């Protein structure tokens, strides 16, 4: 399972898939699952793999990563850009990016600004506003950018980062762990269960445009009409300097994160209890989490239709929403194990019990 996880995470994290342009991750999902279940898609670009019979268990990750789009091209060939998703400007200067053209070609560039040598002292200590940044692709004119490089307004832009093993065993650095760990887990869980008879209908799903407002999840909820939603995520770790160790709820090496609440969703308490009991019964390391900020596709799923019991499982990642995040792959493997155990337990009686209030 571990070797497969490393290979899958490498492919997914190095894919170029910003909101609205999730094609490369979608292609990996299809390639991995085409022989495992029935594939379908929705009209926003979300993709699904379904197998089994019984209550519908949705295992969902979002395919998009935060990125940018070409907003303008200056007469002298520099690219102005718009963020798509939540970027912190501190992380951007001197970082490599790739502009993906209509033809599918990828043009390498670097995020730059006016050099500090030419800034007054009062501006050197301030964070550059996004509007003051630009991308240099090595062109001399707008005509060269458009004619020779094939770049046009609206083209998507993603970080350019390799999936890399770190010195510490089982630590890996890459972009887009939010949320390629979720996509990998959805894919790998379905593959691991491919030869088993399930007590339910398992539907693995890759949603779109999560980073700009949980948009694809709204469509997925209408299409699937799930009875339970298990949202797989790459949430921010809180074990680096600046966080009290005693309050950490997303520590690398601490196991799969089980989220009980965030500003967008209060998870079904009975489902939370089932998830925790399952983790303990199976000897799966876990971390319970109450988040005071952020949100996931559970924010859309849990209040869709007549209400859907939802839970968020996560692989904590340091420095998400930047070019270089870090995970402990053992936390990811615990997330896969818990996903497998939950799918095996969610039969009709168990699912019905989550929402019996009378």
TrEMBL record:
MF GO annotations: aminopeptidase activity; metal ion binding
Cofactor annotation remark: Binds 2 divalent metal cations per subunit.
Binding-site list for Zn(2+) 2: 178, 211, 321
Binding site for Zn(2+) 1: 62, 178, 233
Keyword rRNA processing: no
Active-site annotation: 210 (proton acceptor)
Domain of life: Bacteria
Cofactor(s) required for function per UniProt: a divalent metal cation
Signal sequence, start to end: none
Name this polypeptide is given: Glutamyl aminopeptidase
UniProt-listed GO biological process terms: proteolysis
Homology family: Belongs to the peptidase M42 family.
Annotated SUPFAM superfamilies: Aminopeptidase/glucanase lid domain, Zn-dependent exopeptidases
Keyword terms, alphabetized: Aminopeptidase, Hydrolase, Metal-binding, Protease
InterPro entries, per the entry: Peptidase_M42 (IPR008007), Peptidase_M42_aminopept (IPR051464), Peptidase_M42_dom2 (IPR023367)
Keyword Protease: yes
């Amino acid at each position: 399972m571990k070797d497969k996880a490393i290979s899958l995470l490498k492919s997914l994290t190095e894919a170029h898939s910003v909101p609205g342009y999730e094609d490369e991750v979608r292609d990996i999902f299809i390639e991995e699952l085409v022989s495992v279940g029935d594939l379908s898609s929705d009209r926003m670009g979300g993709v699904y793999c379904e197998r089994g019979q019984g209550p519908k268990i949705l295992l969902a990750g979002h395919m998009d990563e935060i990125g940018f789009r070409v907003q303008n091209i200056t007469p002298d060939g520099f690219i102005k850009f718009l963020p798509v998703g939540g970027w912190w400007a501190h992380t951007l200067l001197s970082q490599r990016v790739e502009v993906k053209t209509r033809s599918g070609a990828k043009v390498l560039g670097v995020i730059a600004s006016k050099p500090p040598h030419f800034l007054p002292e009062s501006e050197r200590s301030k964070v550059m506003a996004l509007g003051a940044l630009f991308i240099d692709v090595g062109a001399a004119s707008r005509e060269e950018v458009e004619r020779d490089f094939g770049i046009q307004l609206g083209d998507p832009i993603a970080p350019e980062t390799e999936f890399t093993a770190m010195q510490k065993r089982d630590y890996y650095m890459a972009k887009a762990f939010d949320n390629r760990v979720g996509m990998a887990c959805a894919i790998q869980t379905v593959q691991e269960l491919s030869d088993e008879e399930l007590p339910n209908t398992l539907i693995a799903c890759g949603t779109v445009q999560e980073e700009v407002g949980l948009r694809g999840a709204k469509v997925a909820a209408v299409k699937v009409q799930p009875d339970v939603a298990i949202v797989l995520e790459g949430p921010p770790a809180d074990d680096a300097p600046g966080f009290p160790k005693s309050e950490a709820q997303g520590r690398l090496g601490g196991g799969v994160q089980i989220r009980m609440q965030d500003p967008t969703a209060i998870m079904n308490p009975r489902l939370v209890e089932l998830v925790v009991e399952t983790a303990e019964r199976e000897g799966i390391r876990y971390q319970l989490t109450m988040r005071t900020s952020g949100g996931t596709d559970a924010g859309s799923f849990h209040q869709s239709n007549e209400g859907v019991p939802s839970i968020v499982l996560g692989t904590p990642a340091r420095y998400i929403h930047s070019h270089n995040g870090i995970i402990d792959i053992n936390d990811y493997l615990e997330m896969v194990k818990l996903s497998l155990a939950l799918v095996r337990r969610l039969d009709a009686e168990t699912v019905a019990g989550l929402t019996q209030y009378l």
